[in-house]
Amino acid sequence: MDLATIEGYAQTLLAPPNLVTSEAREQVTFFFEDLKKKISINECLILLRESKNPFVLFQIGQAIGEIVLRDWALIEPSDVQIAYKTLLEFVATSLSLESYVVGACLKSAAMIIKRGILDGKSGDQEELYQFIHQMLTNESSTVQAAGCLFISALIEQFSSAWRNSKFSITWDFHLQAKSTFENNGLRRLLEMSLTTLHALSNQEDIVGNAFTSRLCDRFLEVSENILSWNFSSKLYRRFLSNHQSSTSFRPPISWKDLLENDEFFILFFKLHSKIRHDETLCTKSMNCLIQLASLTGDCMPVADQEASTKYVRMYISSLLELFAQGPSNWETNHFCLIINRLFLYRPLTSIMRQEPELRARFFGFLRDYTIHLTNQAMQKAIGEAEHEDHTSLALIYDAIVVLLRGRWRTCFSSEEEADAVDNELVKWPTLMIVNAFVSNLLAPPKGTRPVAKDEDDGDEDSEDRTLFMDLFNPLGAMICYSVGEFMENMATNLHTSLAEFTAMATTGSTGDMSRRLPMWQEDQHWLMLILANSIVGEEIDGACHVSGDVFDYTQKLFHTGRKFDETKKAQYLQMCIEQPTQDRAQYALEVDPFIIVMGELFAWASIEHDVFANASREMISPELCRSTFLCLRRFLNAASSSVDCDKWNDYQGVSSENLPVMPQSKEFSAILVRFVIKKVLAVLVNYGSEEKLCQDAIDCLLSLVESHASDIASSPELFEYLNSLDIARLPNRANLMKALVLIGAAANDQELQENMFKLILVPLSERFVSACDQPTRTDIDSQIVDYLQCFDGVAKASQSHSAPVLFKFLYAIIDKCVGLMRSRNQNELVVSNILQLILDVTTKVSIYIDNEDESNALYASLLQIVDTYKTDQFQRFSTFTADDEEKATDLALFIDILSNVLSKDFLTLGGENCTNGAKVVIHSLEMLLTIMNDRVLQMPEVALKFFRLILYLVEFSPESLAEMSDQLMSSLCQCIRLGMTGQFGMEITSTSLESLTEVVLHFGSPANKGRCTQNLAFLFKEMLPTVFETCLSNTCENSIYAESCSALYALIAFERSFFDEYVNELFSKKSNQQARQVLEAAFTELMEVNPEPGNRRGRVQFRSRMEQFLNKIQGLLSYN
């Protein structure tokens, strides 16, 4: 190969865009791809020595690895060793190499070493590790860096599987290579690091000397990478960095002798004490300590309590000694992660059963440091909007919760010891931490909260309720261990806060109020958030519950003689709602503490509403109002939920009227519902433009639907407010309509339901029809969008029992949308909202409709909409690019609708005939397949939904394939082939393979084979090599491997000669000549049973033979 020619091509490729045409650039790219196929190893090594062009060196560095792996069976062991050693020596001796050149050379060397680790072809491994040690201890920082990069390359190669490498390397090979490397190479590298670090730890000044500092840095990096190694059988693509790993340290049993030496652990603590003032070295050292804290597995089994207790004793003793004065700023996060890992990965009994003196010292340190960090983190988070310490605090809070839970799973030898642990860890320490947190959220003099730095950029993640959720959740768990004291403190705080607000509102001057009010509002906001996340909780589905510890506390009070009267409970809560400023002290001992707290919440909510009603809006903060609604929603839903009182009577001995739940009387229910309706709808009427506030208000109303739907639906106040409210003008119109429909459906009273239907839905539909009949105009079109969003809310509220009524209502709307699609075809917002409405109707409503006439009527309307969409929107999508998010959203909605239609037919009608739903999809595919080019498929959401739609069609309704034209079927197969390439992600690859299997099975059956055209059969033949290569390249991807085996079996069963012809082409390749005899025998065994179309047992047996085939041909077959 002429070096000047190669370097000339490289210069062309690297030239500025204005100097080189795209055709010339493509020609150069093809040249280098072709070069890698033709060039020999010796020629590569010559070019590596002679060229100075970085891009040529990069290409040659890559080529050496690819050629050696491709021609492994043809290359002599000595040539293999020369190849990787030359690469290493080239990197070690060359100065000022570009980083991408170094990376390519070291990756190729690592791949070669991995390929030869089992058959020994890459030579003596000890010689390799000596070479690495020489690189790491070299005085040149460049050589040291190259040594570390090579270790990183080795670790990456052995922790991952090669995909699309075309070297027929199997999953089993990767696992065996990984296991061999763990037992030998990885341990050897760690021992090398430990020896060097031990020598360094005995020096007085490591950081002050440039060489020892650099040497320490390199070997700490090696140790960090090894201790973060994934020792499980799972392989994954892992790129190493100095960031912390989430992998625990789980070495194999062969490392046990190494870990039994106490010096192994003490070394890292000793070394850290000497380098902790250097941030870079400190970070790497702390990462090593983190991994040691997570030690688990065969070398430290959970069942071996003695070894675990000894390990924990040694670790926390060293930890307390090293961090006696607390961690530095750059150690904080790592230190908290150490505590977190220690509690997560070690049996908590091994901590509880330490010597009393050490345990007390450790728990005392943990308490004091947690309180210190709480103060520090919250001051920074609120006052400076800095959340690094906040993240660390969340780690240590989570760890404390784990430790507290472990306390109750530990049995102690004596009651005195159990009491000692409770005093050291549980009741007062947790209360001190909780009080410290609360204190940091309240302004002076009640607390220490600094002036807040505003960081609200409109993003939900920046809201306090979301931003501090990682602290609220564990705090809620901690509160439960001292729930009585917390409820008492919280009731006092709320009562004092209300008194302060009342005083400001009645006696304070205007100037005094303007000064004090913002601080008070912030205090109340935080009290609401604390209360909403403490003694009540919310499930992932939105259902709320009272904490079990609150019930336990009530039971404890009950058995001490305190019994609460149901009538007093209702009287107290009624007073809080109707007379919130009245003295309520008389109820302090007559009402459950939980009800006392809830009453104080109701009192504040009532005062807040009164301020609204009196037009004193300047005294109310929308953010505080939102927090009130959040807290109120959770308490209302949790306390109104039905409780299995019989269970409590049977097992707890507590009568139902004494439980911490809402009073059950009808009189109180009416008072509560009237209060909530007035508060919620007053906000919607007066603050309709505050979208987030209105949403919280609507959610609060929904919290009572399950328990008080009939009361809400029959409330005169509801319709009184709705009459003064234009729902369609609200930003939250869809969600309000959803809430109102859910209320009507849950009311379980036909008269109430009909009343709501007539008063709410019918007027909206009439206004919508009127707007649709008017000529297009900006304001009219905007109204239409508003109405469509209201109807979308109706669809989202559909349930199985309400769907038939809602379908009749919504079908009339959809029928009107057919003409609307034509008259407003240029208005993308109208079109998008029509599609969203149809999507939700097909998702939530029509799925419950069993009437075939109604389903067919819907399909008829959908066909008209599809025709309109194709005609009017095709031109719009012909210029589609990856940046057109609005178009992508429309297209995703359209595809979702089609998927819903198919799913509905499959569930209700079965798949014996081509259903009307399938015909709608086929009709739509004519457009979709036309516009689905590479650009469109670069949109992940659109691509995945589209390929799933194809799978649903061929799987749920294979009979529909007969309805397709030859051209449409050909386009469908071409699209499936594109999906199998892997360029759109692994899930699409798997989905495409599954779709291909279904198509081939359909046309491979005797009944349908006559319908398969010559063109379609040729497409199947063209796809066979891709399927076979996908099978070989993805043995580590279970789903893709299984689907590719199934697709390959179906293709061979369809036409055996296609596969035989392809195999003969493989045998003719030069790289397969030497191993041809072995390969022929392996293929013969693979095909010993002739595949039959649709034979499931045969397919399973074929997959089993394929696994044996892969083991026999690994490293021998090349299909490049």
Descriptive keywords:
nucleus, nuclear export signal receptor activity, two-stranded antiparallel sheet, 1120 residues, ARM-type_fold, transport, 48 helices, 2 strands, single chain, mainly alpha
Spatial order of the strands in the main sheet?
Answer: 1-2
Number of strands: 2
Give the rounded overall mean pLDDT.
86
Please state the structural category: mainly alpha
Q: Counting H and I runs of at least 4 residues, what is the number of helices? A: 48
C-alpha termini separation: 21 Å
Largest sheet: 2 strands, antiparallel
Residue share in β-strands: under 5%
Q: Which of globular, elongated, flat, extended, rod-shaped describes the shape?
A: globular
Question: Could you characterize the architecture of this molecule?
Answer:
- There is one protein chain.
- The chain is mainly alpha-helical.
- Among the domains are: 529-725, no CATH class; 733-824, no CATH class; 1004-1119, no CATH class.
- It has a two-stranded antiparallel sheet.
- A hairpin with a 5-residue loop joins strand 1 (536-538) and strand 2 (544-546).
- Helix 3 runs antiparallel to helix 4 (54-70), helix 6 (99-115) packs across helix 8 (141-158) and helix 42 runs antiparallel to helix 43 (986-1004).
- The radius of gyration is 36 Å and the shape is globular.
- 43% of the residues are buried.
